[in-house]
User: Which sequence fits this backbone?
DNA sequence: ACAGGCTCCTGCAGGC
DNA sequence: TGCCTGCAGGAGCCTG
């Protein structure tokens, strides 16, 4: 479901609601997916920890956890652990009251000292949950560069010599972490670049244009709370509005908003890909 | 170093 | 009404 703007929106919303809260008890509703390490070990890493903060890293939501005692000591103490949430296609992370009806496919419920609950819901179970003990493991890092932070030189270097299509390159999380199908199509449209073009053959000017288009489209989407294509909602259950700004994504056959040519849909890297055959070269 | 296909899942829309 | 197909915001694996 979610790409960078949706994950950013959720992470900010969860952070605003649970930062400083303490996890009292954890309930896991399933014992197969979505656990990268065992539910028992995750519960151990979560219970009686204080939420120091919640942030987005790539498409992951990282909950920074401190020992309950750190509340009373220095604020600069590093986190003791992390809870890493990947939402897959249909995952949701919601802050609710304990009385709120439990949605089908709820896989995790974290009871908080404030009386709230943090819930993970994921019908397709493509999402992943992982707890990391920072005494024994390194902090989670994204495999690729963050599209909001990457500078022009590094961006250009990512694609140098690469023979795969620019669309596939944008989706490759070890190059850029956070771009998915919607924002790949939307940024390529705004940059005037055909998705099938070989990444390594784009000019510096084109890549600069692409980086700027990507930055613009992601920041604009974050301001609008992300894209609600089907059932995406933020931490409070509120839908985003960027889907109203889509120019090509899921507009197959509809007129290009710039030139009127019908938007074309092809399959590329196994994904639906939308572009304007007139505006993109 | 890729491309392409397949897989993991559930749910929904559209055609018949 | 039901049954079928195709499709969906992700990503890892395997083969060629």
Assistant:
């Amino acid at each position: 479901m979610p790409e960078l703007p949706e994950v950013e929106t959720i992470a900010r919303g969860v952070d605003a609601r649970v930062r400083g809260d303490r996890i009292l008890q954890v309930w896991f509703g399933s014992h197969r997916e979505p656990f990268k390490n065992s539910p028992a070990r995750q519960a151990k890493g979560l219970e009686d920890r204080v939420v120091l903060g919640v942030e987005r890293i790539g498409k992951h939501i990282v909950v920074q956890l401190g020992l309950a005692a750190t509340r009373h000591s220095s604020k600069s103490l590093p986190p003791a652990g992390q809870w890493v949430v990947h939402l897959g296609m249909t995952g949701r992370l919601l802050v609710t009251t304990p009385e709120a009806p439990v949605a089908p496919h709820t896989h995790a419920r974290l009871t908080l000292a404030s009386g709230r609950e943090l819930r993970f819901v994921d019908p397709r179970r493509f999402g992943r949950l992982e707890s990391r003990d920072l005494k024994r493991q390194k902090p989670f890092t994204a495999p690729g560069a963050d599209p909001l932070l990457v500078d022009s030189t590094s961006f250009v270097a990512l694609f140098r010599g690469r023979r795969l299509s620019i669309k596939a390159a944008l989706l490759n999380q070890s190059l850029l972490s956070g771009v998915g199908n919607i924002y790949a199509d939307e940024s390529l449209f705004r940059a005037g670049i055909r998705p099938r073009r070989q990444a390594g053959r784009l000019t510096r000017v084109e890549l600069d244009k692409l980086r700027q288009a990507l930055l613009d489209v992601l920041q604009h989407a974050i301001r609008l709370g992300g894209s609600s294509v089907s059932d995406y909602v933020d931490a409070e259950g509120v839908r985003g509005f960027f889907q109203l700004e889509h120019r090509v994504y899921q507009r197959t056959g509809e007129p290009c908003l710039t030139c009127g040519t019908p938007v074309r849909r092809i399959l590329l890297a196994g994904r639906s890909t939308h572009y304007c055959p007139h505006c993109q070269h």
About this structure: Residues 1-3, 6, 59, 86-90, 124, 126-127, 171, 173, 180-183, 226-227, 229-230, 232, 249-250, 271-272 of chain A lie near DNA strand C (CB under 10 Å from a C1'). The mean pLDDT of chain A is 94. The first strand of chain A starts at residue 23 and ends at 28. The domain at 4-133 of chain A is CATH 3.20.190.10 (N-terminal domain of MutM-like DNA repair proteins).
